[in-house]
Design a protein that fits this description.
The protein is α/β, with parallel strands linked by helices and about 300 residues long. The protein is built from eleven helices and nine strands. It starts with a strand and ends in a 5-residue tail after the last helix.
Length: about 300
Amino acid sequence: FVIFYGLGGSGIVGHIVSTLFEQRSKTPLITYTTASIPTWVGPNTLVTLLSYSGETLEVLRAARRVLQKGAKVVAICSGGSLERLALDAGIPTVKVTGGMAPRMAVPEMVGAAVSILERAGIVEGAKKELTASVKSLEKVKKLFSAHAELPDNSAKRAAIFLLDHLPHAVSESALHPVALRLKNQLNENAKRPCVVIDVPEAMHNTLEALPETKRDRYIIYRWSGEDESIRIQLEFLKKLLGERVFEERFNGTLSEVVLSAIMWSDYVSIYHAALQNIDPLPVSKISALRRALAKLKT
């Protein structure tokens, strides 16, 4: 088994990599963003520890536990306590560029995680596919950057659509990391809550309780590779929710779609912050929590 373990801006890296390559992996790819590591971890498990700062309490504790269990371990970080622990324990470490907000380091950390999978012989051609997909981001930048005018810039229009409303990010399971990224980025950049709705699972429970107030707005992610059953369910949602839906479509391979949709989501969150005159960089509450947790022993 391969486990990706991390939280927050680093934790989503595991979700992205698992989604992109789980169908081609020679072993199961599992992402954990919980407070603990499963009991079955052992010598036949490769654990990739993800902490951009290198100071995430849960990751540092997990590092010690998986080492005690004899698991194969690799770390991805920019330095900090995790790098020092890895050095002391002889754990291979991929050190990424420091000095950024953790959520901004996701692309580099995804690249590092993909390289680890390929070097371990778990997924073949992963780096080549990821590199090819990155080219699609140039198109995203041209279409949705600040220089692109409002009528043709759907990221700006989506940000306006969500203003003063409660966002719901809707996606099929294959694009779950995209919806999760929008939620995370709206939380941190725009300081706004967001609900993630995963199709088809939500269509067997959440559907019956979907909010029907004017306050709720829905971003529905679509892509060229969706299954016919998914298409029917998303079209049903569109009809049910009516004017409260903003649909965004992406074309290409799964890798191209996921990367492009994540970049689009980032633009939406930044524009949403700008509309509220909010500085997207400070995360005062998260910083305060980290200071409180720093008092605990790892």
